[in-house]
């Protein structure tokens, strides 16, 4: 149920500009929950321009990389809805992050890969992320566990609901 809601919310609010594995107006989002701290994602989703104006180097990098396209503010989405979207992206991300691009950056062509497994900006951007994560790493891990538990419980509830319907339906056919 949560994943279905997340998919619907993604299609409604994100899908016109983002895909999981292909560049559109904005970067592909496969593995974004692995590349960015969840607190950063909440801030960026609420108001990307505010994050950029506060001098976040990665947000500025994305803004420049995507032709200064302004992502609309989604500060009207509740925390639960944003979590549902992030849970869906996390569950649906089937491509390794190097296919989606380095930290969401689209690869212009295969020439950008210097050696297999080596990406441009690897040292710079990853170091920035490590500095930004700091103690957020623990919070991020806890949030990932919570998303996993909620998704698992949602699926279990759905299975039990379907089983109860099946049981009721089977009871009608007894002689």
From TrEMBL:
Coiled coil ranges: none
InterPro entries: Cyt_c-like_dom, Cyt_c-like_dom_sf
GO molecular function: electron transfer activity; heme binding; metal ion binding
Keyword terms: Heme, Iron, Membrane, Metal-binding, Transmembrane, Transmembrane helix
Cytochrome c domain sequence ranges: 1-93
Transmembrane segments: 141-166
Record's protein name: Cytochrome c3
Originating organism: Fulvivirga imtechensis AK7
């Amino acid at each position: 149920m949560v994943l279905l809601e997340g998919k619907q919310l993604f299609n409604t609010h994100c899908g016109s500009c983002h895909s999981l594995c292909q560049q559109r107006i904005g970067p592909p989002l496969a593995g974004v929950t692995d590349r960015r701290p969840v607190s950063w994602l909440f801030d960026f989703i609420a108001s990307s321009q505010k994050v950029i104006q506060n001098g976040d180097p990665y947000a500025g990098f994305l803004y420049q990389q995507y032709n200064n396209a302004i992502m609309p503010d989604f500060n009207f989405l509740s925390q639960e809805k944003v979590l549902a979207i992030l849970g869906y992206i996390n569950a649906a991300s089937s491509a390794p992050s190097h296919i989606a691009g380095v930290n969401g950056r689209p690869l212009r062509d295969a020439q950008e890969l210097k050696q297999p497994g080596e990406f441009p900006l690897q040292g710079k951007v990853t170091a920035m992320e490590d500095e930004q994560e700091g103690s957020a790493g623990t919070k991020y891990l806890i949030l990932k566990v919570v998303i996993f538990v909620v998704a698992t419980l949602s699926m279990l509830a759905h299975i039990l609901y379907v089983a109860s319907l099946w049981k009721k339906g089977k009871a009608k056919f007894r002689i």
